Amino acid sequence: MTERVIRGHDCVAEGAAYLCAREPRFAQAYALTGPLPLRLKADGYARLLNAIVSQQVSVAAADAIWKRVKAAGLTGPRKVMWASEEDLRACGLSRQKVRYAKELAKAGINYKALRDAPTDEVIKTLVEVPGIGVWTAEIYAMFSLGRADVFAPGDLALQEAVRMLFDLQDRPKDRALRDMAENWAPWRGVAARLLWAYYKVEKDREGIR
Question: Mind listing the domains of the chain with CATH numbers?
Fold first, then answer.
C-alpha cells in the first residue's frame, strides 16, 4: 500500500502546513484553532462495535452503554456471537443494534489485513456489514487506520464548517463536498481535522454571545 498513513503529530502538522499554503481559508481557520489533535484510535472489532453503539443516541447514552458492554466482557466477536440477545439487550443495545453487533461478529473481517489494504477496499469491506455505513467506514479508515487522505463528506459538522469557512449560502451536500475536498488531497484527513476544530471554535464563540 502506498497511501500515506498518519502516525504522529508531525504528520498532522505537515498536512496542516500544506493545506494552509494551498488554501488561504484554511490558514484563516488554523490561526483560530492552533495545532490539531491526532485523534488516532485502535482498530478492530471493538472500535466498530463502539460506532454501532453510538448510532442515533447521545454521547452520554453511548458512553453509558459502552461501559456496560465492556463490564460484561462483550467487546470481542466470539463473545458477542456466544452472547444471547438478552445479554446484549441488558447492556442497553436495541434489538437492531444487537443484530448489527452479531452480523459484524460473524462477518469474519481480517482487521490486520485492512491495515495494508487500499482505502477503497477497506470501505467496500466494511459497508457490506449491516449497520456499517459509508460515514462509519470512512471514520474508521481515518482514525483507526490513520489514512491521511480520507474525508467524510456526509458528516454534518464538516458540512457546516465548510459553509461557515467558505461563506456558502447553504451547507454543501455529500456529493458536492466530496468533489470540493478533492482539492485538499493528499491531506483530506487533516482537512477534516482542521474543519472539525474550526467548527468547535465557531460554536464555542456562538455560545459566548
Answer: 9-40+149-208 (1.10.1670.40), 45-144 (1.10.340.30)
